[in-house]
Amino acid sequence: MKKLTLLFEGIWLLFAGNTSLYAQATTYPFRNPSLPIEVRVNDLISRLTLDEKVQLMKHDSPAIPRLGIPAYNWWNEALHGVARTPEKVTVFPQAIGMAATFDTEALQKMGDITSSEGRALFNESLKKGKVPQYRGLTYWTPNINIFRDPRWGRGQETYGEDPYLTGQMGMAIVRGLEGNDPHYLKSVACAKHYAVHSGPEGNRHEFDARPSLYDLWDTYLPAFRDVITKANVHGVMCAYNRLDGKPCCGNDPLLVDILRNQWKFNGYVTSDCWAVTDFAHHHKTHADDMVAVSDAMLAGTDLECGNLYQLLAEGVRKGLHSERDVNVSLARLLTIQMKLGMYDPQEQVPYARIGREVIECDAHRQHAARMARESMVLLKNDRHLLPLQASKVKRIALIGPNADNGQAQLGNYFGVPSEIITPLKSLQRRFGNKMAIDYYPGTGIVTPLENGPTPSQIAAAAKKADVILFVGGITADYEGEAGDAGAGGFSGFASGDRTSLSLPPVQAELLKALKRTGRPLVLVNMSGSVMSFDWESRNVDAILQAWYGGQAAGDAIVDVLFGDYNPAGRMPLTTYKSEADLPPFESYSMENRTYRYFQGEVRYPFGYGLSYTTFAYSDLDCTASAPTGQPVEVSVKVTNSGQRDGDEVVQLYVSHPQDGQVRRPLRSLKGFRRIHLTAGETQTVRFTLSPEDLALTDKVGILTEKAGEMQLFVGGGQPGYTTGSTATLQLTGDPYQLVFSSCSTGR
């Protein structure tokens, strides 16, 4: 037997360099692409030993040479471009910045570009017979958790606080990553972290989230439902935390009742990394690791990111579960690999022809620049200071810790491009021989520069300039995933989360000194969340929210500041006046959170963003009465009434009368379009409101459309904050219950 094994290993080594030759050389049915995938998967499973099966259910799955199965590492990242690979790749704005574009078409294209660059790297690895970590095609993105509280450090990875926006953006990137071939997946997206996972970071391995059924179904689950039932995402990652006392990766209501039975999900589920280890060691819900892995697999966690699933073999022998149970999960994993074309002749897989030449090609770099420009949100522009006129600026003072900090622009879960354009680099390239550019870092993010000039000294030098640009904010070193963001010990941060929404005090002190110069002062803020901008909103002349804008952020910022691009980004988050306005961070109740439920005054609302032109809305057309269960058509005319060409983000909000018995959103985004209008141009924008869009969630989580009156508003932001048009819609008829139903999670 040993000699036979060596023989097969020799055959594998012979053909490993050419997988198509190897596929032609074998007669195993699982190698036959003309057979149904289910037949092929069952054939492959029948040839595996129990110990081989459970090893293939770990993220770092080994090669099985006797069957020609290459080693494959399921763990890869593609949050805003291919991540964590040593090769240079195209890097887009952080996810929260892409959400600020309100541009699903651009995000879908970004996903397509990312999967092209990832395919090029994967194709090289597959030819070598091994797919190591960060070379596979199973991307653990998008993060569609709700950014319920701006203090959550990983919120930068999400598409903001709104379930509808998150669902629309999530579906767009899933479609871009997975492609549209009828037989093969270009890559595999993975919706994470399922479910109810939005901080805190410091105790995520033992935290028990306890939302009401209303909040669960009204806020935390809709985006997952969208990407699963509408975009057909092929991967889901279960979260670290517990939900109502049960670890999410062993939670039958979440993984069986809702995911598999109600939503008919037929893809694979992976644990978050070492989440199954948490069962016994941190959550203390299981007696030992063997019971933990059995429960996780039986609940539907098919793949473990970690190093415990080898215990599944012993679990079979001890009767905790059967080998047939193992086969169910393994079949889901092998089906994914079959759909990627890993066991087919590579000349038959259309995506196998993608080569290294696509990586960082001109079209990809241009799209990164487009998304960076579209992500910029102009929050304040007193006396129309912006755009600056380059012909009138003879000297500019560029100050701040992020003015030439390329690393800040990458956020977290990032790849590295060949070139990062910082604001300093962009200014020097564009105006270096036309104006004097005085650059002073001024301060660190949270601490003064060692032996650096004082704020008063910097201000004295900056006073010579015609305008002062301060580029500050924070970086992913201070907000992000626990273990990656190492800001412990600094005021305002804890384990990757934030405890304060204010700009770090050292930056605020420098800004106040610059204000005293009397020169025009512009604040460009880089962050993955919002700042409260208490002093800044009252004292600086203009504020530009620039997020972590990726490789082209510097050019995008300068384009906006000098008028080469008319900003149209919108806030995917509510800017609160203070963290004191928020409920306790660990509370998962949505009461008084996000624009849908917050009752107080805000600094800048969700959906807000200024332009260098103006837009007018007219002729809102919507039927006055419609029966439940039927779509409702809405149209409105939008005119660029200003003097500049520009984009407008047209937003549709639905408001139901408040009911003292059941909580209802104050208003909810239910449609948006980003359009371009030349000065004076008018376009008619159309929306279709589905019964789901017009329904409400009841207190036990049932989504039902009922007869009654509601208000529709279409404008460039929320009603009350921008101009727009309003209509009243009356629904008639019997209650119409949506196919999505509720399921108690144990409380």
Question: How would you summarize this macromolecular structure in one to three sentences?
Answer:
The protein is α/β, with parallel strands linked by helices and 747 residues long.
Structure summary, number of beta strands: 30
Silhouette? globular
Supply Rg.
Answer: 27 Å
Low-confidence stretches: 1-25
Mean pLDDT: 94
Number of helices: 22
The biggest beta sheet is recorded as:
6 strands, mixed
Assembly type of the chains comes to: single chain
Distance separating the two termini: 55 Å
- Strand order in space, largest sheet: 10-17-16-13-11-12
Strand content: 15-25%
What structural class is derived from the secondary structure elements?
A: alpha/beta
Proportion of helical residues: 25-40%
How is this structure best described in words?
- With 747 residues, the chain is an alpha/beta fold.
- The chain has 22 helices and 30 strands.
- 29% of the residues lie in helices and 18% in strands.
- It has a 6-stranded mixed β-sheet with strand order 10-17-16-13-11-12, sandwiched between helices. Strands 21-29-28-23-24 form a 5-stranded mixed β-sheet, with no helix packed on it. Strands 1-2-3 form a 3-stranded mixed β-sheet.
- A hairpin with an 8-residue loop joins strand 28 and strand 29.
- It is globular and about 80 Å long.
